[in-house]
Amino acid sequence: MTLNFDETTIIEACRQGDRKAQGLLFDRFSRKMFAVTRRYAATSFEAEDLLMNAFMVIFTRLADYKSQGSFEGWMRRIVVNECLQHLRRNRMLFVAADEENTYTATDNILPSHNLEEAELLELVRQLPEGYRAVFNLYAIDGFNHREIGELLGISENTSKSQLSRARNLLQTHLLHAEESLKRVRV
Amino acid sequence: MDRREQHNIDDLFAESLGNSEPRLSDDIWARMEARLDAADAAKAALPVSAESVTPLGSAAPAEPVVRSLNINWKQYSMAAALVIALISGSVLFLNINKENNKPADISMNTSGSSTGNWGPETVKKPKAAAPLSPLKGDIIDKPESLGPKKAKDSKSQAAPVTKPAPARRRNVIPLGIPKDDVFGNTSVAMAPAKPRAKAGNQSQKNQRPGSKKLNNETAPEGQPEEPATPKVEYPALAANAAPANTDNDNYVIEVEFRPTTGIADASAATDSGAAGKGFWGKLKNLKERPAGSGSLKGELLAQLSRYTHRDKQQ
C-alpha cells in the first residue's frame, strides 16, 4: 500500500464529488503534473490547459483506481496520455524533421550543467514534436521503446531513431548554448 | 556520441526537468473549479455515467442520444416482435382451419368436429332432421305411437293387423288452414265420410279431423262410449294409407296425401264405382248394404287391410 491515510481519505472524498477534497488533491499534485505537461506543450498556457484536461480525467476516473501502485504514477500516466492525445489531435506528432535543423554531434562535447532549468526546458521545446515526445517519454518519464511505440503508434525502431536524433539535436543546442555563455562571460 | 554521453544528456534533462515543480498561475484552481461545475451541471441535466463526461471545449458527447435511442429501439423491437408473433399465429390458425375444411375431411367433420366450420368452403353435412313434434290436429303417421293400441287390438279385434309400413315422408297440415285450400278438390272424395263423422262423439267434433287424440282420453268416465266410427279422411287417398289401426273403439287412419295420384285414384274409383269395383265401389256397396248385415267398421277395416296388402305386394 503506497498511499498514506491522507491520500486515501482525499481520494475517497474526491470519489464522492467533494469539491474541497478535489482542491486539496489538485494543490498537492498540480505542480508536478504541470512539469510534465510543459515539456510536451509548446507554451505555458497550453501546458496549463493540458493540466486541467488531465485533472478532469483524473477526477472522473478515480473510481477505476484500485489503490495498487503509486497514485502519483497513475496520475502521471494519465497526464502523459492526455499530452499525447493533444499532440495527436493537433497533428503535431512526428512531423518530418527539417533536415536543415538536424545536427550531427560529431564532436564529443559534454554539456556543462551550467544551464538553468528554464534554459533546458527551452532547448527541449525547440525540438520537433516527434523527437520531443520520444525524448520526454524515454529520458524523463521512464518509458521503454516498446511502450513508447504503443503509446505513439510507432515501431520500436522508429522510437529509437527518433530518440537518437533528439539527443543529437539537444547536444548541438547545448554546445551552441555553451558557446553563447562563454561569449557573454568573456 | 558514445553511451556515456547519451546517459549524461538524459540524466541532465531528467534531473533538471523531471523533479521540477514549476509555479502555476494563481487562478488555475478557479478555472479548474469552473470546469468541474460545468461538468456536474451537464451530468445532472443528462443522467449519464461519469465516463461519458467530457471537459468543456471538447467534442460534444453523443452518448446520451445513443442511449436514449437504445431504449426506444428496445421498445420498438419488443412491439414489433409481438406484432409479428400475433400475425404469424393468426396466419397459422387460418391455415390449420383451411386444411381442416378441405372436402376430403368433410366426412370427419360431420360428427361435430371441434374446429370451427365457419370458412367459406365449409360444407356441412346436414344432420338428421329432428323429428317434428306432432302438432295438435295434424295428420301424422307415427307407427311407434300406435304401440299400446296394438295390445288392445289383439284383445278385441279380429281384423288382421298388418305390419306398419316403413316411414315415408309425411305431409303436415298446419293448423288453421282449411283442408280444401291444402288438398284442393279432395273435398269431393271426402263427401261420403262426412255423415259418419257427425255420428261421432261431440268432443270429436271439436277436434280437427285426423287428430291422434283418442276418444278414451276425452270421454268422460261413466258415460257409455259409443263405438267410434272409423274416420276415413280423404278416402280417395286411403289406398296409400299406412296400415290401419284395428282398434275397435278409437283409431285414426292417418294417410299420406298425394294429390295427383289420389285424385286419379278417386276418379278411377268413381268411374268404376257403379260396378262395385275398386275401393269406392266397395265403399258404396258397404254404405248401401242392408241393415244388420254386419259391422260396418269391421268390413271397412278388412277392406283397408286388403288394399294395404295389395299395395305392399305391388
Summarize the structure in short.
Chain A is an all-alpha fold and 186 residues long. Helix content of chain A is 69%, strand content 0%.
Description:
The complex is a heterodimer of chains A (186) and B (314). Chain A has 186 residues and is mainly α. Chain A is 69% helix and 0% strand. Chain A contains eight helices and no strands. Chain A starts with a helix and ends with a helix. Chain B is 48% helix and 0% strand. In chain B, helix 11 crosses helix 12 (278-287) and helix 12 packs antiparallel against helix 13. The longest helix of chain B is centred in the N-terminal third of the chain and has 38 residues, at 63-100. Residues 104-117, 142-156, 184-195, 197-205, 209-225 and 259-274 of chain B have low confidence and may be disordered. Chain B is built from 13 helices and no strands. Chain B has helices at 3-18, 28-45, 63-100, 106-109, 147-156, 179-183, 187-190, 194-198, 202-206, 215-218, 259-272, 278-287, 296-313. The chains are: A mainly alpha (186), B mainly alpha (314).
Spell out the key features of this protein.
heterodimer, A: 186 residues, mainly alpha, 8 helices, globular, B: 314 residues, 13 helices, rod-shaped
Q: What is the N-to-C order of secondary-structure elements of chain A (H for helix, E for strand)?
A: HHHHHHHH
Span between termini of chain A: 55 Å
Mean pLDDT of chain A: 80
Largest interface: A-B, 44 and 33 residues
From N to C, what is the helix and strand string of chain B?
HHHHHHHHHHHHH
Mean pLDDT over all positions of chain B = 61
| Straight-line distance between termini of chain B | 143 Å
Helix content of chain A: 55-70%
- Beta percentage of chain A is under 5%
Q: Give start-end ranges of low-pLDDT stretches of chain A.
A: 95-110
Q: Give a short account of the largest sheet of chain B.
A: none
- Gyration radius over CA of chain B: 53 Å
Q: What structural class results from the helix and strand content of chain A?
A: mainly alpha
Query: Which oligomeric form is depicted?
Result: heterodimer
Could you estimate the helical fraction of the residues of chain B in percent? 40-55%
The largest β sheet of chain A comes out as:
none
Gyration radius of chain A, rounded: 19 Å
Number of strands of chain A: 0
What best-fitting shape of chain A do the alpha-carbon axes yield? globular
